[in-house]
Design brief:
- The protein is about 50% helix and about 10% strand.
- The protein is mainly alpha-helical and about 325 residues long.
- It has two domains: about 140 residues, no CATH class; about 130 residues, Intergrase catalytic core (hpI Integrase, Chain A, Orthogonal Bundle).
- Strand 4 and strand 5 form a beta hairpin.
- The relative contact order is 0.07.
């Protein structure tokens, strides 16, 4: 077992050429930190001994977290997924990553998790398998053999203005209440709200580093929130804790914070905004991504059909007049 817990501390243990090595990540360190430390020590000892190092799935996870994952959004959520994955690695060699993925999948199914939740975990293993191939750790691109769960469904939950206000009013921290109201009006993601610190000429500036798309954008300050001040001064964990408690008090235990983003799209479309406008508001890469909300525009579709029919009717009338 490469990483294990004894008492309140995480330890690591591994062998290279028959020699055993072990150590502790220290008081208060997480399992992820122990995995990273074990990978560093393994690489260091292998380099000093001049032998070819064998790499584990934990090694790949540690390198990915260190060199790549830091640029991703939602680090707390990411580490939660990693913690779920490492429960099934147990020092497995990187060449066994497909088998590890099968264990993650089976455990998720046994726990009755949604296909979406299981797939987020499998996506991490697929990503590090592809990277391990690029790094030369494995000869075959094993990521292609990690299959996603079928049946993942897009979530369509839209809250009413009254729903949003009940949740916001139930928040015990004013900053959290503001975050709820702001997300429902602008579609800003959790991390974008938590990191936003600049308002310029009535626009909330979302930097490229904070945007999921990697492109900066500007979001208008809601007219009914003229006193908005940034940053809000709250943490991810504080917002998550407050929101989950508030949604229960509000009688909406099924609501998720990300539903506020969908809600913003539905409100903007309901008041006549185009898909292109909502695309720019939400920071989507294209209207094709925003088209998931197309079903919210039945009125526009019917008006469009009527306009086309009217155009055809005018054309036919003009042709008939010309033939008389």
């Amino acid at each position: 077992m490469a990483v294990y817990k004894r008492g309140d501390r995480w330890h690591y243990r591994f062998q290279i050429d028959g020699r055993s090595f072990s150590g502790s990540a220290g008081a208060g360190a997480s399992r992820t930190a122990a995995v990273q430390l074990e990978a560093q020590r393994r690489a260091q000892i292998a380099a000093e001994s001049g032998c070819a190092a064998r790499h584990s799935v934990d090694d790949a996870l540690a390198r990915w977290l260190r060199d790549y994952a830091g640029r991703l959004k939602g680090p707390a959520s990411l580490h939660s997924k990693v913690r779920a994955v490492v429960q099934h690695t147990h020092g497995a060699d990187i060449t066994e990553i497909v088998e590890v993925a099968a264990k993650v999948r089976a455990a998720g199914v046994a726990a009755n998790l949604s296909a979406a939740t299981i797939n987020r975990r499998l996506a991490i293993l697929r990503r590090i398998a592809n990277l391990a191939h690029q790094w030369g750790w494995i000869e075959q691109p094993l990521g292609a053999r990690i299959k996603m769960m079928p049946g993942e469904k897009a979530r369509h939950v839209y809250l009413s203005p009254d729903d949003v206000e009940r949740i916001a009013a139930a928040c015990g921290h004013q900053g959290c209440a503001t975050a709820v109201r702001l997300s429902a009006r602008t579609g800003l993601r959790e991390t974008e709200i938590l990191r936003a610190d600049t308002i310029r000429e009535g626009l909330i500036m979302v930097s490229a580093q904070d945007a999921k798309s990697g492109r900066p954008r500007a979001v208008p300050v809601p007219p009914d929130m003229p006193d908005l001040r940034l940053p809000l001064g709250i943490t991810y964990h504080q917002l998550r804790r407050e929101f989950e408690a508030a949604r229960t008090v509000a009688g909406l235990p099924h609501a998720r914070f990300h539903d506020l983003r969908h809600t913003a799209a539905s409100w903007w479309l309901a008041t006549g905004s185009s898909l292109a406008t909502v695309r720019d508001l939400l920071g989507h890469s294209s209207v094709a991504v925003t088209s998931r909300y197309l079903h919210l525009l039945p009125g526009d579709l019917k008006r469009g059909a009527a306009a086309v029919a009217a155009m055809l009717d005018r054309t036919k009338t003009a042709q008939d007049d010309a033939s008389d």
